[in-house]
């Protein structure tokens, strides 16, 4: 870990610990106030607990030009970003984080081209819906490893994170606590329920929380849609294409809509928010990630809308290319934050229980 | 000199809590309000941006406040700290109105949080602002601007022109120019004069140049002295101020809450000659917090040194700068610039006077005291023996001054035996009308909120 980033966050955390005015905003401060001295692991945990709601920046009497120069959201964002690189697995892939914007663009193009070429070369003789363009077997061959390998990488990373922050045995109750917190985006409600500061300086609004929730639930619904399709296919022998009143579509269409709206909203907010209150170097990658997710959602919806038309021939590889890029880069892009955030919230729940 | 063309009903001088409460109240009554704040936007809000809570009467659970806190209890708490030097009528007015302030504050954007960790003793009496005073100030600026209040930053008021018994014109500098405005009513809410070191030195003597100012550098008493010079009635005297002992490494201005030190009860405190000078264990800390400012001010070079050992390090809230640490006392003395042999002698003498420490209890008056020592340490007296040893330097940190404008229950200023017909004052700049000396935690924001709202209401009624 870059010691100067940790050291800067520690310097600020020590000031906060003497002040405590922001205690009610989020989970970071109660966790911070439990300690007197902060190990590198403590700082890493605080950083991953921080949701960058910025409440503690706009309320701080010590921000620049004051000589104490507080900017806790940024200090924690920098450590957070660095901690993901630190725990990336395989180690050699850590630097991908720095280039995730470019990689996403490249991945999208390459993924499209690859799938398009394969689909052309191995075009099935029969099949309905998009299986007319690409066989089920080919999709499974590509996507099973593209899904499982990143998950493995994330799992290894999280084990490392757990060690760094000194986490003990994991209890289901703590995971439940983390799920509840993430599900409500508790840490983006400002403690008072008015929301967070993001797009308009110190004005509290629910915009970011609601758009982020749309992304979260949209993503989960889309994922559930795919999962239900898999179950229908293998367990019941019911194959795609599915009609509108089928589980995959009833989950997938609202999921895709939520995801599209959420991503567009988050991208818009990001343009209005002050980049100096995050990790500025990560801004491009984060934006690219949001746009990639947007592309996944919109191309998925478009694909459904285009059922039966010739546009499927290019929409299918576009959508699958985007999904492929998304999966493969999950451990090395902003997507990783979801996993680390769950780990940090679980760890926090355990510490709250012990306190 | 440019005259501001717009015709404002009210000019509010200052941009802290009292000013904002006045401006919001007046704007809600339909007045056109201009706020003149001398600070640039990042530093707007004066001392109010450093606060954390206000003291609030309540007859049952209210917002974040538990149980109840009656007018009588509140008033008697106040009498204890002021030694009776209190204007009972105005104090009771502030206390009674405080209960109504909390919902008003919430309705105007302020959010509260439960008593902060380490301040449980205040959970019943003081309501804490979420995000502290700057959070409160931000919310009020948003509310005021939504009501059409105009705010000029870096607008330093230099003169109020008193003609007969009204303020005819307000002069201020802004963007390098001298400007004037002629509102129908004026509210002064520009704080005390503690940031004017020359003025402090005139009142206190040269020692005051070594004082640190805990809050804003912008409260220099310019408007206060301008009005007093023109015969507006004064209250209090310039030697009265609220001062505490803070970390000697704190910045000259604006160090705020994080520079406080809570370790005195577990320590011995010496001056630069390594001599003790007061009973460090007189009472539980927050109660004695305010006398140490004066005690340190009376020592040579206005400095003190807290000495503790390893067993006490975790008994108090951490502060912004880590203590200086050393393996031995002579080494610690060296690092602090104290005479080593004298420090060792003082500590030896203290240790020898300590009795049985087994009754030690950090949060209660435990009666663990020294015997035969002058000055004694009457509680928490445990020998300083366990390395490493730690030290903090102490300086006097001034919170605010008491000299101010005398107001009546309408927050109106007076000249001779009659009111100034269009001048009101609120907050620190008139707090001396209520408190002659001493201070009760959280009462400053109560005074500002109560009298700010009164001033805003009266000023608007006059203008309409
Ligand atoms: C570190 C610290 C912590 C404190 N904590 C608490 C607490 O928790 N609770 C509590 O009740 N009290 C607390 N106090 C006291 C409290 O800050 C004051 O009682 C209160 O803020 C006074 O409010 P005010 O509006 O009168 O003055 P201020 O908030 O100081 O506002 C004065 C304003 O006037 C402006 N001004 C000054 N001169 C001019 C001029 N010539 N022209 C134009 N504008 C001018 C200043 O820039 C400033 O905006 C604390 C004080 C300090 C220093
Ligand atoms: S961010 Fe600023 S106001 Fe908030 S706890 Fe830290 S030092 Fe205090
Ligand atoms: S940015 Fe928000 S979540 Fe992060 S520490 Fe500050 S208040 Fe907490």
TrEMBL record, chain A:
Entry keywords, A to Z: Membrane, Transmembrane, Transmembrane helix
SUPFAM superfamilies found in the cross-reference section: 4Fe-4S ferredoxins, Respiratory nitrate reductase 1 gamma chain
InterPro entries listed in its UniProt record: Citrate_utilization_prot_B (IPR012830), NarG-like_sf (IPR036197)
TM region positions: 101-122, 142-162, 214-238, 250-269, 281-305, 311-332
Protein name (database record): Citrate/tricarballylate utilization protein
TrEMBL record, chain B:
Keyword Lyase: no
Record keyword Oxidoreductase present: yes
Pfam families linked to this entry: FAD_binding_2
Coiled-coil stretches noted in the UniProt entry, renumbered to this chain: none
Cofactors named for this entry: FAD
Domain FAD-dependent oxidoreductase 2 FAD-binding as annotated: residue spans: 9-436
Leader sequence residues: none
An example Gene Ontology molecular-function term: oxidoreductase activity
Alphabetical UniProt keywords: FAD, Flavoprotein, Oxidoreductase
Top-level lineage group: Bacteria
Protein name from the UniProt record: Tricarballylate dehydrogenase
Organism the protein comes from: Marinovum algicola
Source species taxonomy: Bacteria, Pseudomonadati, Pseudomonadota, Alphaproteobacteria, Rhodobacterales
